[in-house]
Design a protein that fits this description.
The chain is mostly helical and 147 residues long. Helix content is 42%, strand content 7%.
């Protein structure tokens, strides 16, 4: 029987494994779109995006569907953005534009955005401290963020 895992015996590689994939490598990205295919009772990424958008106030739906930004290493799978666009388009109301944006470096993009935001002079006013939350609870968030 062919083993897919190779365990190293060297102390230099004590915690490393090699996973050999053939046709399985095509199934890995598919899990993001159809986790139920492997027995995971969760929404796929297109359904999760649509659910997240439709959980927001109705007046924001057109803007959110038109501004979907892909970040993270999994977005680098070949054809990922095209597939996601097709699936979200099928789930979105027909009257809304659906636009998927793909930054030049999706792996670092979120971090870069956070780094830029943290240098903004207004950044501290966008935060709720632990002390504020412990004193006022959810109300401080509702007041500060108009929720």
């Amino acid at each position: 029987m062919l083993s897919y895992l190779k365990y190293y015996t060297s102390t230099l590689c004590l915690f490393q494994q090699t996973l050999r994939l053939n046709n399985e490598r095509f199934a890995v990205p598919e899990i993001l779109f159809s986790p139920s295919d492997v027995g995971i009772p969760q929404m796929g990424i297109a359904e999760a995006i649509t659910h997240s958008i439709t959980s927001c106030p109705v007046e924001t739906h057109p803007h959110l569907f038109a501004n979907i930004l892909l970040t993270g290493g999994c977005t680098l799978f070949k054809g990922f953005s095209e597939r996601l666009l097709t699936e979200v388009r099928a789930l979105a109301p027909v009257e809304f534009d659906v636009n998927i944006m793909f930054p030049p470096d999706p792996v670092k993009y979120s971090w870069q955005g956070g780094a830029i935001l943290s240098k903004d002079p207004e950044f501290k006013s966008m935060l709720v401290t632990k002390e504020e939350y412990e004193e006022e609870g959810y109300r401080v968030c509702a007041d500060k963020f108009d929720v």
